[in-house]
Amino acid sequence: MTGQPLLRVRDLAVHFASETARVARAVDGVSFELHAGETLALVGESGCGKSLTALSLVRLVDEPPARTTTGSSIQLHGEELVGAEPARLRRIRGGEVGFVFQEPMTSLNPVHRVGRQIEEAILAHDSVPRATATARTLDLLSRVGLPEPDTAARAYPHELSGGMRQRALIAMAISCGPSVLVADEPTTALDVTVQAQILDLLASLRDETGMALLLISHDLAVVANVADRVAVMYGGRIVETGPARRVLTTPAHPYTEGLLRAVPTIDDPRGPLAVIPGRVPSPTDWPSGCRFHPRCPYAWDRCAGEEPPLDGGLRCWLASEPDRRGSTGYALVTR
Ligand code: SF4
Q1: How many A from CA of 180 to the centre of ligand 1?
Q2: From the CA of 302, how far away is ligand 1's center (Å)?
Q3: Alpha carbon of 138 to those of 148, 153, 233, 291: distances in Å?
Q4: Region of residue 47 (phi > 0: left; psi between -120 and 50: alpha; otherwise: beta)
Q5: Please, are residues 194 and 162 in contact by the beta-carbon 8 Å criterion?
Q6: 130 C-alpha to center of ligand 1: Å?
Q7: Is 234 in the pocket of ligand 1 (CB under 6 A)?
Q8: Interacting residues of 90 by C-beta distance below 8 A, sequence separation 6+
Q9: Is 14's C-beta closer than 6 angstroms to any atom of ligand 1?
Protein backbone atom coordinates (compact mmCIF):
# COMPACT_ATOMS: atom_id res chain seq x y z
CA MET A 1 0.00 0.00 0.00
CA THR A 2 1.23 3.48 -0.81
CA GLY A 3 0.14 6.92 0.34
CA GLN A 4 -0.66 8.14 3.80
CA PRO A 5 -2.21 5.56 6.11
CA LEU A 6 -5.55 6.33 7.76
CA LEU A 7 -4.27 4.88 10.99
CA ARG A 8 -0.67 4.71 12.15
CA VAL A 9 0.13 2.93 15.41
CA ARG A 10 3.66 3.16 16.80
CA ASP A 11 5.03 1.32 19.84
CA LEU A 12 1.62 0.87 21.41
CA ALA A 13 2.07 -0.44 24.94
CA VAL A 14 -0.81 -1.04 27.34
CA HIS A 15 0.22 -2.02 30.82
CA PHE A 16 -1.93 -2.90 33.82
CA ALA A 17 -0.49 -1.84 37.13
CA SER A 18 -1.74 -2.22 40.67
CA GLU A 19 -0.13 -1.74 44.03
CA THR A 20 -0.37 -5.39 44.90
CA ALA A 21 0.27 -7.21 41.62
CA ARG A 22 3.17 -7.16 39.18
CA VAL A 23 2.77 -4.98 36.09
CA ALA A 24 1.05 -6.86 33.28
CA ARG A 25 2.52 -5.81 29.93
CA ALA A 26 -0.49 -7.00 27.95
CA VAL A 27 0.32 -5.06 24.76
CA ASP A 28 3.99 -4.33 24.44
CA GLY A 29 5.38 -2.34 21.54
CA VAL A 30 2.87 -2.95 18.74
CA SER A 31 3.19 -0.99 15.48
CA PHE A 32 1.12 -1.17 12.30
CA GLU A 33 -0.53 0.96 9.65
CA LEU A 34 -3.94 0.74 8.08
CA HIS A 35 -4.80 2.26 4.69
CA ALA A 36 -8.16 3.20 3.21
CA GLY A 37 -9.99 0.26 1.68
CA GLU A 38 -7.72 -2.43 3.12
CA THR A 39 -8.24 -5.13 5.71
CA LEU A 40 -5.62 -5.93 8.30
CA ALA A 41 -6.23 -8.99 10.46
CA LEU A 42 -4.75 -9.28 13.94
CA VAL A 43 -4.60 -12.96 14.82
CA GLY A 44 -3.43 -15.07 17.73
CA GLU A 45 -4.62 -17.11 20.69
CA SER A 46 -6.71 -15.69 23.51
CA GLY A 47 -4.51 -13.54 25.72
CA CYS A 48 -2.09 -12.48 22.99
CA GLY A 49 -3.22 -8.83 23.19
CA LYS A 50 -5.13 -8.48 19.91
CA SER A 51 -8.46 -7.27 21.34
CA LEU A 52 -6.72 -4.98 23.78
CA THR A 53 -4.78 -3.47 20.89
CA ALA A 54 -8.04 -2.75 19.08
CA LEU A 55 -9.77 -1.25 22.12
CA SER A 56 -6.75 0.90 22.84
CA LEU A 57 -6.98 2.62 19.46
CA VAL A 58 -9.71 4.88 20.82
CA ARG A 59 -8.47 4.64 24.39
CA LEU A 60 -11.31 2.40 25.57
CA VAL A 61 -8.96 0.81 28.09
CA ASP A 62 -7.18 3.78 29.53
CA GLU A 63 -8.58 3.87 33.03
CA PRO A 64 -6.54 2.62 35.98
CA PRO A 65 -5.22 -0.03 36.36
CA ALA A 66 -4.62 0.10 32.57
CA ARG A 67 -2.45 2.75 31.01
CA THR A 68 -1.07 3.45 27.56
CA THR A 69 2.59 4.03 28.19
CA THR A 70 4.71 7.01 27.26
CA GLY A 71 6.15 6.69 23.79
CA SER A 72 3.04 5.10 22.30
CA SER A 73 1.53 6.90 19.33
CA ILE A 74 -1.85 6.38 17.64
CA GLN A 75 -2.52 8.69 14.72
CA LEU A 76 -5.86 8.80 12.92
CA HIS A 77 -5.73 10.94 9.77
CA GLY A 78 -2.49 12.33 11.21
CA GLU A 79 -4.15 13.41 14.48
CA GLU A 80 -2.50 12.08 17.63
CA LEU A 81 -4.99 10.26 19.85
CA VAL A 82 -2.67 9.49 22.77
CA GLY A 83 -3.28 12.43 25.07
CA ALA A 84 -6.36 13.63 23.14
CA GLU A 85 -9.17 15.30 25.10
CA PRO A 86 -11.91 12.94 26.36
CA ALA A 87 -14.55 14.91 24.40
CA ARG A 88 -12.58 14.45 21.18
CA LEU A 89 -12.20 10.72 21.86
CA ARG A 90 -15.96 10.41 22.44
CA ARG A 91 -16.54 11.96 19.00
CA ILE A 92 -14.15 9.50 17.41
CA ARG A 93 -15.65 6.42 19.11
CA GLY A 94 -18.60 5.35 17.04
CA GLY A 95 -18.01 8.26 14.67
CA GLU A 96 -14.71 8.02 12.83
CA VAL A 97 -13.95 4.58 14.27
CA GLY A 98 -16.81 2.05 14.39
CA PHE A 99 -16.83 -1.19 16.38
CA VAL A 100 -18.46 -4.56 15.80
CA PHE A 101 -18.09 -7.04 18.65
CA GLN A 102 -18.43 -10.79 18.92
CA GLU A 103 -21.77 -11.11 20.65
CA PRO A 104 -24.35 -8.57 19.50
CA MET A 105 -26.63 -9.32 22.47
CA THR A 106 -24.07 -7.71 24.75
CA SER A 107 -23.66 -4.69 22.48
CA LEU A 108 -27.33 -4.04 21.83
CA ASN A 109 -29.53 -2.86 24.68
CA PRO A 110 -32.15 -5.60 25.25
CA VAL A 111 -34.89 -3.20 26.38
CA HIS A 112 -34.82 -0.83 23.41
CA ARG A 113 -35.95 -1.43 19.84
CA VAL A 114 -33.12 -2.00 17.37
CA GLY A 115 -34.07 0.95 15.17
CA ARG A 116 -34.16 3.34 18.12
CA GLN A 117 -30.66 2.28 19.17
CA ILE A 118 -29.26 2.98 15.71
CA GLU A 119 -31.06 6.34 15.63
CA GLU A 120 -29.51 7.28 18.96
CA ALA A 121 -26.06 6.40 17.65
CA ILE A 122 -26.65 8.69 14.67
CA LEU A 123 -28.01 11.52 16.83
CA ALA A 124 -25.06 11.24 19.23
CA HIS A 125 -22.67 12.12 16.43
CA ASP A 126 -24.64 14.07 13.83
CA SER A 127 -26.85 17.13 14.34
CA VAL A 128 -29.75 15.93 12.23
CA PRO A 129 -33.52 15.89 12.90
CA ARG A 130 -34.86 12.61 14.30
CA ALA A 131 -36.83 12.02 11.09
CA THR A 132 -33.56 12.07 9.16
CA ALA A 133 -32.00 9.64 11.64
CA THR A 134 -35.02 7.34 11.28
CA ALA A 135 -34.79 7.39 7.48
CA ARG A 136 -31.06 6.78 7.65
CA THR A 137 -31.60 3.86 10.03
CA LEU A 138 -33.98 2.15 7.62
CA ASP A 139 -31.54 2.70 4.77
CA LEU A 140 -28.71 1.22 6.86
CA LEU A 141 -30.75 -1.82 7.83
CA SER A 142 -31.48 -2.37 4.16
CA ARG A 143 -27.81 -1.93 3.21
CA VAL A 144 -26.72 -4.60 5.67
CA GLY A 145 -29.10 -7.06 4.05
CA LEU A 146 -32.08 -7.16 6.41
CA PRO A 147 -34.99 -7.96 4.09
CA GLU A 148 -37.65 -6.04 6.03
CA PRO A 149 -35.92 -3.00 7.51
CA ASP A 150 -39.15 -1.63 9.04
CA THR A 151 -39.80 -4.86 10.89
CA ALA A 152 -36.19 -5.16 12.04
CA ALA A 153 -36.19 -1.55 13.26
CA ARG A 154 -39.30 -2.19 15.40
CA ALA A 155 -37.91 -5.45 16.84
CA TYR A 156 -36.21 -5.89 20.18
CA PRO A 157 -32.80 -7.60 19.93
CA HIS A 158 -34.10 -10.93 21.26
CA GLU A 159 -36.66 -11.05 18.44
CA LEU A 160 -33.90 -11.23 15.79
CA SER A 161 -31.67 -14.21 14.96
CA GLY A 162 -27.95 -14.07 15.80
CA GLY A 163 -27.06 -13.23 12.19
CA MET A 164 -29.71 -10.50 12.01
CA ARG A 165 -28.50 -8.98 15.27
CA GLN A 166 -24.96 -8.91 13.95
CA ARG A 167 -26.19 -7.19 10.78
CA ALA A 168 -28.02 -4.62 12.94
CA LEU A 169 -24.85 -4.05 14.94
CA ILE A 170 -22.89 -3.54 11.72
CA ALA A 171 -25.56 -1.03 10.62
CA MET A 172 -25.00 0.85 13.89
CA ALA A 173 -21.21 0.68 13.51
CA ILE A 174 -21.29 2.23 10.02
CA SER A 175 -24.10 4.68 10.80
CA CYS A 176 -21.78 7.67 11.02
CA GLY A 177 -19.59 6.72 8.08
CA PRO A 178 -16.46 5.62 9.96
CA SER A 179 -13.14 5.64 8.15
CA VAL A 180 -11.99 2.67 10.26
CA LEU A 181 -14.19 -0.25 11.26
CA VAL A 182 -12.86 -2.53 14.00
CA ALA A 183 -14.47 -5.97 13.91
CA ASP A 184 -13.49 -8.00 16.99
CA GLU A 185 -14.31 -11.69 16.43
CA PRO A 186 -17.44 -10.62 14.50
CA THR A 187 -18.48 -14.13 13.48
CA THR A 188 -17.41 -16.32 16.40
CA ALA A 189 -20.93 -16.65 17.81
CA LEU A 190 -22.47 -17.50 14.42
CA ASP A 191 -22.84 -20.73 12.48
CA VAL A 192 -20.65 -21.28 9.44
CA THR A 193 -23.16 -20.22 6.78
CA VAL A 194 -24.08 -16.99 8.52
CA GLN A 195 -20.42 -16.39 9.25
CA ALA A 196 -19.63 -16.38 5.52
CA GLN A 197 -22.51 -13.97 4.88
CA ILE A 198 -21.32 -11.55 7.55
CA LEU A 199 -17.76 -11.64 6.21
CA ASP A 200 -19.05 -10.96 2.68
CA LEU A 201 -21.08 -8.06 4.05
CA LEU A 202 -18.08 -6.53 5.83
CA ALA A 203 -15.95 -6.87 2.69
CA SER A 204 -18.58 -5.34 0.44
CA LEU A 205 -19.18 -2.42 2.84
CA ARG A 206 -15.43 -1.85 2.96
CA ASP A 207 -15.25 -1.81 -0.86
CA GLU A 208 -18.34 0.39 -1.17
CA THR A 209 -17.27 3.02 1.36
CA GLY A 210 -13.46 2.84 1.18
CA MET A 211 -13.22 2.44 4.94
CA ALA A 212 -10.38 0.41 6.41
CA LEU A 213 -11.20 -2.79 8.26
CA LEU A 214 -9.27 -4.02 11.30
CA LEU A 215 -10.34 -7.60 11.81
CA ILE A 216 -9.52 -9.33 15.09
CA SER A 217 -9.77 -13.10 14.96
CA HIS A 218 -8.35 -16.33 16.30
CA ASP A 219 -9.85 -18.11 13.27
CA LEU A 220 -7.43 -18.35 10.37
CA ALA A 221 -10.16 -19.45 7.95
CA VAL A 222 -12.04 -16.22 8.65
CA VAL A 223 -8.89 -14.20 8.10
CA ALA A 224 -8.00 -15.98 4.85
CA ASN A 225 -11.33 -14.97 3.33
CA VAL A 226 -11.13 -11.24 3.91
CA ALA A 227 -7.71 -9.94 4.94
CA ASP A 228 -5.20 -8.20 2.70
CA ARG A 229 -2.53 -8.27 5.38
CA VAL A 230 -2.10 -10.26 8.55
CA ALA A 231 -0.29 -9.45 11.79
CA VAL A 232 0.21 -12.46 14.06
CA MET A 233 0.43 -11.57 17.75
CA TYR A 234 2.02 -13.52 20.57
CA GLY A 235 2.88 -12.36 24.05
CA GLY A 236 1.65 -8.80 23.47
CA ARG A 237 3.87 -8.38 20.42
CA ILE A 238 3.55 -8.78 16.65
CA VAL A 239 5.74 -11.76 15.71
CA GLU A 240 4.99 -11.97 11.98
CA THR A 241 3.29 -9.64 9.53
CA GLY A 242 2.87 -9.54 5.77
CA PRO A 243 0.44 -10.10 2.90
CA ALA A 244 -2.31 -12.51 3.98
CA ARG A 245 -1.68 -14.99 1.19
CA ARG A 246 2.04 -15.22 1.94
CA VAL A 247 1.66 -15.48 5.72
CA LEU A 248 -1.13 -18.05 5.52
CA THR A 249 0.51 -20.26 2.89
CA THR A 250 4.21 -20.00 3.73
CA PRO A 251 4.45 -18.88 7.36
CA ALA A 252 7.93 -17.93 8.49
CA HIS A 253 7.42 -17.71 12.25
CA PRO A 254 7.22 -21.00 14.15
CA TYR A 255 4.15 -19.75 16.03
CA THR A 256 2.29 -18.96 12.79
CA GLU A 257 3.36 -22.34 11.47
CA GLY A 258 1.98 -24.04 14.59
CA LEU A 259 -1.35 -22.19 14.34
CA LEU A 260 -1.78 -23.16 10.70
CA ARG A 261 -0.76 -26.76 11.21
CA ALA A 262 -3.32 -27.05 14.01
CA VAL A 263 -6.17 -26.32 11.55
CA PRO A 264 -7.82 -29.34 9.83
CA THR A 265 -7.68 -29.14 6.02
CA ILE A 266 -10.50 -30.03 3.66
CA ASP A 267 -8.20 -32.48 1.82
CA ASP A 268 -7.39 -34.40 4.98
CA PRO A 269 -9.97 -33.50 7.61
CA ARG A 270 -9.06 -36.39 9.92
CA GLY A 271 -5.30 -36.18 9.38
CA PRO A 272 -2.79 -35.54 12.15
CA LEU A 273 -2.58 -32.02 13.55
CA ALA A 274 0.29 -30.16 15.12
CA VAL A 275 0.14 -29.36 18.81
CA ILE A 276 1.71 -26.20 20.17
CA PRO A 277 2.88 -27.42 23.57
CA GLY A 278 2.35 -25.46 26.77
CA ARG A 279 0.16 -22.45 27.20
CA VAL A 280 0.24 -18.71 26.60
CA PRO A 281 2.38 -17.21 29.38
CA SER A 282 1.10 -14.56 31.76
CA PRO A 283 1.66 -10.92 30.77
CA THR A 284 3.04 -10.37 34.27
CA ASP A 285 5.77 -12.87 33.57
CA TRP A 286 6.80 -13.03 29.91
CA PRO A 287 9.64 -15.51 29.33
CA SER A 288 13.12 -14.10 28.79
CA GLY A 289 14.45 -13.72 25.26
CA CYS A 290 11.94 -14.77 22.62
CA ARG A 291 8.60 -14.95 24.41
CA PHE A 292 7.67 -18.03 22.39
CA HIS A 293 10.82 -20.00 23.22
CA PRO A 294 9.33 -22.32 25.91
CA ARG A 295 6.81 -23.58 23.31
CA CYS A 296 8.90 -23.44 20.16
CA PRO A 297 10.15 -26.72 18.66
CA TYR A 298 13.11 -24.94 17.03
CA ALA A 299 14.36 -23.01 20.07
CA TRP A 300 18.05 -23.01 20.92
CA ASP A 301 20.04 -21.26 23.63
CA ARG A 302 20.14 -17.89 21.87
CA CYS A 303 16.31 -17.81 21.87
CA ALA A 304 16.13 -17.91 25.67
CA GLY A 305 18.75 -15.22 26.11
CA GLU A 306 18.01 -12.55 23.51
CA GLU A 307 14.72 -11.28 22.17
CA PRO A 308 14.71 -11.05 18.36
CA PRO A 309 13.60 -7.72 16.83
CA LEU A 310 10.72 -7.49 14.36
CA ASP A 311 12.76 -7.31 11.19
CA GLY A 312 11.30 -7.57 7.69
CA GLY A 313 7.96 -8.62 9.19
CA LEU A 314 9.45 -11.47 11.25
CA ARG A 315 10.45 -11.62 14.91
CA CYS A 316 12.58 -14.78 15.00
CA TRP A 317 16.24 -15.68 15.05
CA LEU A 318 15.59 -18.28 12.36
CA ALA A 319 15.57 -15.37 9.90
CA SER A 320 19.35 -15.25 10.19
CA GLU A 321 19.87 -18.99 10.82
CA PRO A 322 17.28 -20.80 8.65
CA ASP A 323 19.19 -24.10 8.66
CA ARG A 324 18.30 -24.54 12.31
CA ARG A 325 14.76 -25.43 11.25
CA GLY A 326 16.36 -28.74 10.17
CA SER A 327 14.28 -31.82 10.61
CA THR A 328 12.70 -30.85 13.94
CA GLY A 329 9.17 -29.51 14.16
CA TYR A 330 5.88 -29.82 15.97
CA ALA A 331 4.70 -33.12 17.38
CA LEU A 332 1.65 -34.36 15.46
CA VAL A 333 -1.40 -35.97 17.00
CA THR A 334 -3.78 -38.25 15.14
CA ARG A 335 -7.43 -37.78 16.01
FE1 SF4 B 1 11.47 -20.14 18.06
FE2 SF4 B 1 13.81 -19.02 18.56
FE3 SF4 B 1 12.31 -18.13 16.56
FE4 SF4 B 1 11.59 -17.67 19.05
S5 SF4 B 1 13.42 -16.89 18.06
S6 SF4 B 1 10.28 -18.35 17.44
S7 SF4 B 1 12.24 -19.56 20.06
S8 SF4 B 1 13.26 -20.16 16.75
Answers
A1: 33
A2: 9
A3: 9, 7, 38, 49
A4: left
A5: yes
A6: 57
A7: no
A8: none
A9: no
Does a cis peptide bond (omega within 30 degrees of 0) precede residue 65?
A: yes
82: Cβ below 6 Å to ligand 1?
Answer: no
The residue whose CA is least distant from atom 5 of ligand 1 is 316
- Rounded to a whole number of angstroms, the distance between the first and last alpha carbons of the chain is 42
The answer to whether residue 1 scores a pLDDT higher than 70 is: no
The DSSP letter of residue 323 is G
What one-character DSSP code corresponds to residue 335?
-
Mutation pick for ligand 1 pocket among 238, 291, 315, 317 (CB with most ligand atoms within 8 Å): 317
Residue type, 184: D
> What is d(CA 139, CA 222) in angstroms, rounded to the nearest whole number?
27
User: What type of residue sits at position 209?
Assistant: T
Per-residue pLDDT of 247-277, as tens digits, reads 999 999 999 999 998 888 777 777 788 889 9
3-state secondary structure of 179: coil
Determine if ligand 1 sits within 6 Å of the CB of residue 276. no
> Is 64 a residue whose pLDDT tops 80?
no
User: Which residue type occupies 300?
Assistant: W
Q: Residue 122 and residue 128: Cα distance in Å, rounded?
A: 8
